[in-house]
Amino acid sequence: KALAVEGTRLFAGGTFSSVGGAPRTLLAAVDTTTRQLLPFAPLIEAQTVFAQVTALHADAGRLFLGGGFDVVNGSARGSLAAVDTASGALLAWAPGAITGDVFRGIASIVTAAGRVWVGGRFSAVGGVPRTGFAVFDETTAALTAIDPTPDQPTNRLSLDDGYLYVQGDWDRFGGLVRPRIARLDPQTGVVDPAWQFTYPGVG
Prior knowledge:
Helix content is 0%, strand content 47%. It is built from no helices and 23 strands. The chain has strands spanning 2-6, 9-13, 18-19, 22-23, 27-31, 44-45, 52-59, 62-68, 71-72, 75-76, 80-84, 98-99, 105-112, 115-121, 124-125, 128-129, 133-137, 154-160, 163-168, 172-173, 176-177, 181-185, 190-191. A hairpin with a 2-residue loop joins strand 13 and strand 14. The chain starts with a strand and ends in a 12-residue tail after the last strand.
Protein backbone atom coordinates (compact mmCIF):
# COMPACT_ATOMS: atom_id res chain seq x y z
CA LYS A 1 0.00 0.00 0.00
CA ALA A 2 2.95 2.39 0.55
CA LEU A 3 6.67 2.63 -0.24
CA ALA A 4 9.47 4.99 0.73
CA VAL A 5 13.22 4.92 0.18
CA GLU A 6 16.11 6.39 2.14
CA GLY A 7 19.62 5.46 1.06
CA THR A 8 19.72 1.67 0.67
CA ARG A 9 16.62 1.13 2.81
CA LEU A 10 13.30 0.40 1.12
CA PHE A 11 10.32 0.72 3.46
CA ALA A 12 7.01 -0.98 2.74
CA GLY A 13 3.71 -0.51 4.53
CA GLY A 14 0.52 -2.48 4.21
CA THR A 15 -1.71 -4.98 6.01
CA PHE A 16 0.78 -7.83 6.55
CA SER A 17 1.91 -9.49 9.79
CA SER A 18 5.07 -11.19 8.51
CA VAL A 19 7.67 -10.99 5.73
CA GLY A 20 9.46 -14.16 4.63
CA GLY A 21 8.33 -15.85 7.83
CA ALA A 22 9.72 -13.09 10.07
CA PRO A 23 7.23 -11.11 12.19
CA ARG A 24 6.64 -7.62 10.81
CA THR A 25 3.48 -5.74 11.75
CA LEU A 26 2.25 -3.54 8.88
CA LEU A 27 5.72 -2.09 8.24
CA ALA A 28 9.02 -3.57 7.09
CA ALA A 29 12.35 -2.55 5.54
CA VAL A 30 14.57 -4.26 2.98
CA ASP A 31 18.17 -3.52 1.99
CA THR A 32 18.02 -2.55 -1.70
CA THR A 33 21.56 -3.85 -2.32
CA THR A 34 21.39 -7.25 -0.61
CA ARG A 35 17.59 -7.60 -0.92
CA GLN A 36 17.60 -8.86 2.66
CA LEU A 37 14.99 -8.04 5.28
CA LEU A 38 16.36 -5.56 7.82
CA PRO A 39 15.87 -5.83 11.61
CA PHE A 40 13.78 -2.63 11.49
CA ALA A 41 10.48 -3.74 13.08
CA PRO A 42 8.25 -1.15 14.78
CA LEU A 43 5.21 -2.68 16.46
CA ILE A 44 2.07 -1.05 15.05
CA GLU A 45 -1.34 -1.85 16.50
CA ALA A 46 -4.92 -0.86 15.79
CA GLN A 47 -7.73 -0.97 18.31
CA THR A 48 -10.50 1.09 16.71
CA VAL A 49 -9.77 1.01 12.97
CA PHE A 50 -8.73 -1.48 10.28
CA ALA A 51 -5.01 -2.05 10.82
CA GLN A 52 -2.89 -0.82 7.92
CA VAL A 53 -0.07 1.50 6.90
CA THR A 54 -1.08 3.39 3.76
CA ALA A 55 1.35 6.33 3.52
CA LEU A 56 5.11 6.62 4.05
CA HIS A 57 7.63 9.42 3.65
CA ALA A 58 11.32 9.22 4.59
CA ASP A 59 13.24 12.40 5.38
CA ALA A 60 16.54 12.96 7.21
CA GLY A 61 16.51 9.80 9.28
CA ARG A 62 12.80 9.93 10.04
CA LEU A 63 10.07 7.80 8.55
CA PHE A 64 6.66 9.45 8.71
CA LEU A 65 3.83 6.95 8.50
CA GLY A 66 0.08 7.17 8.24
CA GLY A 67 -2.76 4.72 8.11
CA GLY A 68 -5.12 2.84 10.36
CA PHE A 69 -3.46 2.45 13.75
CA ASP A 70 -3.73 3.67 17.34
CA VAL A 71 -0.48 2.51 18.95
CA VAL A 72 3.16 2.43 17.81
CA ASN A 73 5.79 0.71 19.96
CA GLY A 74 3.42 0.84 22.94
CA SER A 75 2.62 4.57 22.71
CA ALA A 76 -0.61 6.17 21.51
CA ARG A 77 -0.48 7.51 17.95
CA GLY A 78 -3.72 8.27 16.13
CA SER A 79 -3.08 7.35 12.48
CA LEU A 80 0.13 9.43 12.21
CA ALA A 81 3.58 8.77 13.64
CA ALA A 82 7.31 9.02 12.97
CA VAL A 83 10.00 6.43 13.63
CA ASP A 84 13.77 6.35 13.25
CA THR A 85 14.67 4.94 9.83
CA ALA A 86 17.57 2.90 11.22
CA SER A 87 16.27 1.51 14.49
CA GLY A 88 12.50 1.77 14.12
CA ALA A 89 12.34 3.57 17.47
CA LEU A 90 9.29 5.78 17.91
CA LEU A 91 10.12 9.48 17.72
CA ALA A 92 8.60 12.23 19.86
CA TRP A 93 6.70 13.69 16.87
CA ALA A 94 3.08 13.14 17.92
CA PRO A 95 0.31 15.12 16.21
CA GLY A 96 -3.28 15.08 17.41
CA ALA A 97 -5.33 12.03 16.56
CA ILE A 98 -6.92 11.87 13.13
CA THR A 99 -10.68 11.35 13.38
CA GLY A 100 -13.51 10.89 10.90
CA ASP A 101 -15.91 8.25 9.66
CA VAL A 102 -15.33 4.50 9.64
CA PHE A 103 -13.33 4.82 6.39
CA ARG A 104 -10.95 7.48 7.73
CA GLY A 105 -7.31 7.15 6.80
CA ILE A 106 -4.12 8.72 5.44
CA ALA A 107 -3.37 8.63 1.72
CA SER A 108 -0.20 10.69 1.28
CA ILE A 109 2.55 12.43 3.30
CA VAL A 110 5.32 14.81 2.22
CA THR A 111 7.68 17.21 4.02
CA ALA A 112 8.49 20.71 2.81
CA ALA A 113 9.36 24.10 4.30
CA GLY A 114 9.67 22.72 7.83
CA ARG A 115 6.20 21.19 7.71
CA VAL A 116 4.61 17.78 7.30
CA TRP A 117 1.77 17.85 4.76
CA VAL A 118 -0.87 15.15 5.04
CA GLY A 119 -3.73 14.18 2.75
CA GLY A 120 -6.41 11.60 3.29
CA ARG A 121 -9.95 11.00 4.40
CA PHE A 122 -10.65 12.60 7.78
CA SER A 123 -12.68 15.39 9.33
CA ALA A 124 -10.60 16.57 12.30
CA VAL A 125 -7.13 16.52 13.87
CA GLY A 126 -6.97 16.57 17.64
CA GLY A 127 -10.52 17.87 17.65
CA VAL A 128 -9.76 20.74 15.25
CA PRO A 129 -11.75 20.61 11.98
CA ARG A 130 -9.64 19.62 8.98
CA THR A 131 -11.27 17.95 5.98
CA GLY A 132 -8.88 15.65 4.18
CA PHE A 133 -5.86 17.95 4.39
CA ALA A 134 -3.69 18.96 7.35
CA VAL A 135 -0.30 20.54 7.86
CA PHE A 136 1.93 20.02 10.90
CA ASP A 137 5.12 21.55 12.22
CA GLU A 138 7.92 19.18 11.28
CA THR A 139 9.60 19.51 14.69
CA THR A 140 6.81 19.97 17.23
CA ALA A 141 3.96 18.18 15.37
CA ALA A 142 1.71 21.14 16.15
CA LEU A 143 -1.16 21.58 13.72
CA THR A 144 -0.56 24.73 11.67
CA ALA A 145 -3.12 27.33 10.66
CA ILE A 146 -2.86 26.32 6.98
CA ASP A 147 -6.32 25.12 5.98
CA PRO A 148 -7.51 25.38 2.37
CA THR A 149 -10.89 23.93 3.47
CA PRO A 150 -11.53 21.26 0.86
CA ASP A 151 -14.85 19.48 1.34
CA GLN A 152 -13.72 16.06 0.15
CA PRO A 153 -10.74 13.72 0.72
CA THR A 154 -7.25 14.44 -0.61
CA ASN A 155 -5.61 11.51 -2.40
CA ARG A 156 -2.08 12.50 -3.43
CA LEU A 157 0.62 15.04 -2.60
CA SER A 158 3.71 15.63 -4.72
CA LEU A 159 6.58 18.12 -4.60
CA ASP A 160 8.23 19.42 -7.74
CA ASP A 161 10.29 22.52 -8.57
CA GLY A 162 9.38 24.30 -5.35
CA TYR A 163 5.64 23.67 -5.57
CA LEU A 164 3.32 21.28 -3.78
CA TYR A 165 0.75 19.62 -6.03
CA VAL A 166 -2.39 18.35 -4.33
CA GLN A 167 -4.94 15.98 -5.86
CA GLY A 168 -8.30 15.07 -4.35
CA ASP A 169 -12.02 14.58 -4.85
CA TRP A 170 -12.93 18.23 -4.35
CA ASP A 171 -13.95 21.01 -6.74
CA ARG A 172 -12.75 23.95 -4.63
CA PHE A 173 -9.48 24.28 -2.76
CA GLY A 174 -8.24 27.30 -0.86
CA GLY A 175 -11.36 29.21 -1.81
CA LEU A 176 -10.66 28.83 -5.52
CA VAL A 177 -12.24 26.65 -8.17
CA ARG A 178 -9.78 23.79 -8.55
CA PRO A 179 -11.42 20.61 -9.87
CA ARG A 180 -9.43 17.69 -8.45
CA ILE A 181 -5.96 19.29 -8.47
CA ALA A 182 -4.28 22.42 -7.11
CA ARG A 183 -0.79 23.86 -6.72
CA LEU A 184 0.44 25.47 -3.51
CA ASP A 185 3.46 27.44 -2.40
CA PRO A 186 4.81 25.30 0.48
CA GLN A 187 6.43 28.35 2.06
CA THR A 188 3.09 30.09 2.56
CA GLY A 189 0.50 27.36 2.07
CA VAL A 190 -1.33 29.62 -0.38
CA VAL A 191 -2.92 28.15 -3.50
CA ASP A 192 -1.31 29.45 -6.68
CA PRO A 193 -4.00 31.71 -8.23
CA ALA A 194 -2.34 31.65 -11.65
CA TRP A 195 -2.15 27.87 -12.05
CA GLN A 196 -5.19 25.76 -12.85
CA PHE A 197 -5.54 22.38 -14.47
CA THR A 198 -8.74 20.52 -15.31
CA TYR A 199 -8.91 16.80 -15.93
CA PRO A 200 -10.51 15.90 -19.27
CA GLY A 201 -14.22 15.54 -18.68
CA VAL A 202 -14.07 17.16 -15.23
CA GLY A 203 -15.17 20.71 -14.70
